[in-house]
Amino acid sequence: MPLSKSSHPARVHSNTALFCFELGDDDVARLDALDRAKAGAISWNPVDIE
Hints:
Number of helices: 2
Order of helices and strands: HH
Largest sheet: none
Distance between the termini: 37 Å
Number of strands: 0
């Protein structure tokens, strides 16, 4: 986890509050639906050498 470089307590709290959330089942399902497997890959995978 990156450390905040701010010295203001309110900003430090705000920066760490970023991680205080939960995804519901519907949100996770929507994210999973975005998966396009290899067709959506944006980089070369050395495991897939033919």
